[in-house]
User: Fold this.
Amino acid sequence: MSFDAYETADGSPVEVIEFSNGLTTIRVANTVRDITVSAKLYSSLTYTLTPFAQSKNSDDNNRTMVVSNQFAVIALYQGAPTSSSTRVQITRFHNDDPAKQLQSIWAGRIVAINHIGSEVEILLQPITNGSESTPPDTFSALCNAMLFQSPGCNLARSNFRHIGTVSSITNGGLNLIINNLRNQAAALDAGVLGALSAGDLDIYWQGGYIETPDGEIRDIVEGNVGADPDEVRVNLPFRSLLNGGGVNVYAGCKLDRGTCKNKFNNVINFQGFPDIPEIDPANTELPSGTRVSTNAFAGPG
Assistant:
C-alpha cells in the first residue's frame, strides 16, 4: 500500500521530528520508546504540537510545540545563544506499514522560545514565511550585496580566510586572540592589490565573522582590540570554543566602493550608488531665485 492509502485508511501514524543547528542534530518521535527509521535513531519524547493550516493568513501555518524544559534543543538557547537558526523537519510514517514509507509534512525553523514553569513553548515558523518577493536593491551609496553572496558579490570566501588557532579568550568570551591574523591580512592584501594602509590591515577582519568546526558563527564587531591586530571582539561568546581551538576567520567589508576596489579587487560587482546627488532635483525645491544647486555629490569627485 502507498503512504496515501495508509493515510486514508485506519492507519497508525507516527510523527518524527528532526532539529538541525550547525553540526548538532536532535531527532525525536511521539512514541513510548526510541525507534529507528531509515537507519536514524529517534528518541521518545512527550510533547504537544498544534496542527497547521493553509490559508491566506501566513501565520496559520505556524506551529507551537509544548515540551519539557529539559528537552535537549532548549540547551542551544541557554547561556550564549546559538548564532544560527534551528531548522525543523516534521515527517510521518505509519507503524503498520512494513516499508515505513516516510512523508515530509512540514518544514521550518525555531523563531521563539517561551519558558512556562517546567515547560517551554517553542514557536515554529514554516520556511515559506518571508519568502514573498521584495525589491532586492535600494538606491543607497553602500553595496546592496552581502560579502561572499552569490549571485551578487560573487567572491569565494575561501580566498579571504584565515585558518587560525585561538590563543586567548578574555572579557567573558568576547575578546579573542587568534594567531597570525595580521600576517594573514598582509598576505591576502599582497595577493589582491597591495593598496591597504597599515591601519586598514590592522582592522582587516572587522565586520567579518568567525566560524568554529561545529558550525558556530560569531560576527567580529571590533578589530585591533587593545592595539593588538591579532585580537578581535565578537558580538556574543562562543558556546564551546576553548583556548587552542581552531577557527576559520573571514574578512569583513564596509560595503563601500573603496573597500570593494582596494581590499577585494571586485569593484566590477559593486552594487551601490555612491554618486547619487545630495539633493533630489525632482522632489527638492531650490532656494528662491536659484537655478543651480551648489551642493556637491555624495560620492567621490
About this structure: Confidence is low (pLDDT under 50) at residues 296-301. DSSP finds four helices and 15 strands in the chain. The first strand starts at residue 13 and ends at 21. Residues 157-269 form a domain with the Elongation Factor Tu (Ef-tu); domain 3 fold (CATH 2.40.30.20).
